[in-house]
Structures are given as structure tokens and as C-alpha cells.
Design a protein that fits this description.
Low-confidence stretches: none
Helix content: over 70%
Largest sheet: 2 strands, antiparallel
Distance between the termini: 41 Å
Radius of gyration: 23 Å
Strand order of the largest sheet: 1-2
Number of helices: 18
Shape: globular
Order of helices and strands: HHHHHHEEHHHHHHHHHHHH
Structural class: mainly alpha
Mean pLDDT: 87
């Protein structure tokens, strides 16, 4: 009996699920805001998005491969369960939803670290790059359209009030339901560029992803997204200077470098450069206004001040998971303990409010533990550790959680791949001797 052999380039279940998580996150928001008029169906898609990170559970036998971090993983689950059953929580549904939100980012990373050897991201990197280029091109197109255009709508613009502006242009959202989804994608984009450079992917695509991602940050008007993008690029240049130089000075770029200016001249380069100038000037004006009013400084250090002067009445165990999440409060009601506390925006404060000092410390410890398990250079670990602990929301923004986890995985994998190749070469040399 002849059995059909699988191609060495065939995608295994690990890669298929990774692609599913990535593409659903990229496209789910598009259905919510452009194709689905029903709020109930839109909410259902969002709920599926919350569940999507856990599709790795469907891989048969994958949990048996876990060797790394089991005690830490178990402690995280136990602390989250305490938040679920907290008697102060308004309903158990708040707690369950809060558990999913708090757990998804960490689960993806734990799963990957314990199953590194089953991933071969070089097989799906072209698909991810094509989707990334499409996202950036769509964002560029959206920026040129009026704020009243169909392309610039939100999933539920009525609840937001109106489409946000930067200068006289709409703050772009890509395929996502709101601005925050696109800014989460931009963080992923910076990590994707890092992975591409480490892998020495085609230079023309790498430079496009890298530079147009920065322009998209200006177009989004998001200061945090822009600062984080620049921080990641700084870490990239420090950690991989020689690899960056190989991409930037790739002689194969000479021909495209000659052709692209001719195309821009043909379509009207002044219009093209004018769009970029408007994006940068709009961002600069927004930043200048934030500095003058003190709002930007408050965003940077305000969380730390508020943590030191926390006004909540339940600082140790909090008032229950999910009690500050907008989706839970819309469906299941507001907790009186949250209303009693007042305004909240910062993720750190919301973690403290929902799960108390116990959850806040656990989250910081687990973040540091996972970052230490990565194979990326130390400078990258330091940058990522600080960003994820204090400045990038990976709990109450489901897009951020998915994109941060997937981006970190891509970067780490290509270092792992390099280590694996070096080990194989070393073993072959030993055999020859």
C-alpha cells in the first residue's frame, strides 16, 4: 500500500491555528464595522475574538509538551480564579469574561514557549507580510478619505460620538473596529519588521513594512503607538545592527530605488509627499497640545502616581475580574464598587481595582518570567519587559493582547531558528571529527 507523503513545506496544525488567530484578528473588525449592521452579531464576533487565542487548546496532545513554567502558569490561574469568585463582583459573568481577558496574552506565550519546535514560521511569513502590506496600504488610503467616508467608520460610532481626527484627517483604523485596534497592529508591525530583519527576508518588503509602519503611526495620531514603535526600532538597531545594515544596503534595492521615484513623479509626487507631511504635522500638533496642557506627562507618569495614591477601598484582592471591562458592564451592569472608585483608564489601575495587589504583583512576575524565557537579545528583553509591564495594554484591549503575543513569538522564533541551525552545524562538525 502506497501512502502519500506530506510535503516538508506543508503547514502543520500549529501554523494553521497561528494563521487563523492572526487573520481573524485582522479581519474580524472589518466585518463588525463594514458588513454587519446588527449590534448583537457584532458583539458575538467580538466575543469570538476574545476566545480566539484559546484555539491552541484544540491541538491534540499539545498540552503534554509543557515542561517550562508549569508552577508559574498554575499560580497565575489560581490568582485569576480568586478574582473570578470574588464575592464583591457584580456577577459571575463579569468574572469569567475578566478571566479570559487576563489569561489570553499569557496563555499564548506559555503555549508557544512549550511548543517552539513545532512551529516553522518561515513557511507562513510571506502570508503575514502580504497581510501587513495590505493593512498599511488600506490605512494610507483611509487617511486620504474624509472622516464622513464609509471607510472611516467605527463598529459603533454612535457610542463613541464621532470619528476622531488628527489635524483635518480621520485617525485611521485599518480593518479594525476602532483606533486602538490599529495602534495594536502597529506594535505588531514593529516586531514583524524585527523578525523579517533577523530572518533576512526580502529587503524591499522589509523596508516597506518598517518605514510605512512609522508613517502609519503618524497617520494614526497615536502618540503611545509612535513612541513604542520608535523604542522597538531602537532596540532593533542596537541588537541587530549588522542585520539591519544588510537590509538597508542591499544592492538589489538599487533598481527599485531608481524606479519608485519615477513612479511618484508620474502620479504626482507632491501629493504623495504632502500626505506624509500632513500626517507628521498633524501628529506634531497633537503632541504639542498634549505637552502644553500637561496631558502627555500625565499619561507617562500619571499611572505611577495614581498607584502610589490608590483610592480604592479594596486594595488587596480588588472587587472582581471584569468589573471595569466595557463589554461586561454593557451586558451585565456596573459594579457599585467601581462607580464608587470613579474614573479609570490606565490598565495598571484597572488591574489593581479588579484584582488588587495580588493580581498586580502576579502579573508583573509572570511577565518578567515569560520575557526571560525568550531567546532574543537582552536589550530586547529589557525593552519588552518595561513596555508590557507599564505602557502597553494587553488585558483590556483584546487586539493588543493578540498582536503583542504574536509579534513577540515571531521575533523569538527566528532567534530560536538561528540557534537550532548553529547547533546542527556544530553537531555535523563534531561527527566529521
Amino acid at each position: 500500500m502506497i501512502t502519500k507523503q506530506k510535503s516538508p513545506n506543508a503547514l502543520n496544525i500549529y501554523l494553521k491555528i497561528f494563521l487563523f488567530i492572526y487573520l481573524f484578528t485582522v479581519l474580524g473588525g472589518a466585518f463588525r464595522k463594514w458588513f454587519i449592521s446588527s449590534k448583537q452579531i457584532g458583539n458575538a464576533i467580538l466575543f469570538v475574538q476574545i476566545l480566539v487565542p484559546f484555539t491552541f487548546f484544540f491541538i491534540k496532545g499539545a498540552q503534554k509538551n509543557w515542561r517550562i513554567g508549569n508552577p508559574t502558569y498554575t499560580v497565575l490561574i489560581l490568582v485569576l480564579l480568586i478574582g473570578v469568585i470574588n464575592p464583591l463582583n457584580l456577577t459571575i459573568y463579569h468574572g469569567i469574561l475578566g478571566f479570559l481577558l487576563n489569561f489570553s496574552f499569557f496563555f499564548i506565550l506559555f503555549f508557544y514557549i512549550n511548543n517552539r519546535s513545532f512551529f516553522r514560521f518561515e513557511l507562513i511569513l510571506p502570508t503575514i507580510v502580504i497581510a501587513g502590506i495590505a493593512q498599511l496600504c488600506l490605512g494610507f488610503f483611509q487617511y486620504t478619505q474624509p472622516s464622513t467616508s464609509f471607510i472611516n467608520t467605527y463598529a459603533d460610532v454612535e457610542s463613541v460620538g464621532s470619528v476622531a481626527l488628527v489635524g483635518n484627517a480621520a485617525r485611521i483604523t485599518g480593518t479594525f473596529s476602532y483606533i486602538s485596534g490599529f495602534t495594536g497592529y502597529l506594535f505588531f508591525n514593529s516586531l514583524l519588521a524585527w523578525a523579517m530583519i533577523k530572518y533576512q527576508y526580502k529587503s524591499i518588503y522589509t523596508i516597506f513594512i518598517l518605514m510605512m509602519g512609522l508613517v502609519a503611526c503618524f497617520m494614526s495620531g497615536a502618540r503611545a503607538a509612535t513612541y513604542l514603535y520608535l523604542i522597538i526600532l531602537t532596540g532593533l538597531f542596537i541588537a541587530e545592527y549588522s542585520s539591519v545594515a544588510k537590509v538597508v544596503f542591499d544592492f538589489r534595492l538599487i533598481l527599485p530605488a531608481m524606479i519608485i521615484p519615477l513612479i511618484l513623479i508620474g502620479i504626482g509626487s507632491e501629493k504623495f509627499t504632502g500626505i506624509i507631511e500632513n500626517a507628521f504635522s498633524g501628529f506634531s500638533e497633537r503632541r504639542k497640545s498634549g505637552v502644553e496642557t500637561g496631558e502627555e506627562t500625565t499619561r507617562i507618569i500619571g499611572d505611577f502616581i495614581e498607584l502610589l495614591n490608590f483610592k480604592g477601598n479594596y486594595p488587596y484582592l480588588g472587587v472582581g475580574l471584569g468589573s471595569t471591562y466595557q463589554g461586561a458592564t454593557k451586558l451585565f451592569g456596573f459594579s457599585p464598587y467601581v462607580i464608587e472608585y470613579g474614573f479609570y483608564e490606565s490598565e495598571l489601575i484597572r488591574i489593581l481595582l479588579e484584582g488588587g495587589v495580588l493580581l498586580l504583583i502576579t502579573r508583573i512576575v509572570v511577565t518578567i518570567y515569560l520575557i526571560r524565557q525568550l531567546l532574543i537579545p537582552t536589550i530586547g528583553k529589557i525593552f519588552l519587559g518595561i513596555i508590557l509591564t507599564f505602557f502597553f495594554h494587553v488585558i483590556f484591549n483584546v487586539y493588543n493582547a493578540v498582536f503583542a503575543a504574536l509579534g513577540i513569538i515571531l521575533v523569538d522564533y527566528f532567534y530560536y531558528r538561528q540557534h537550532r541551525i548553529q547547533l546542527t552545524e556544530l553537531q555535523q562538525k563534531i561527527k566529521k571529527t
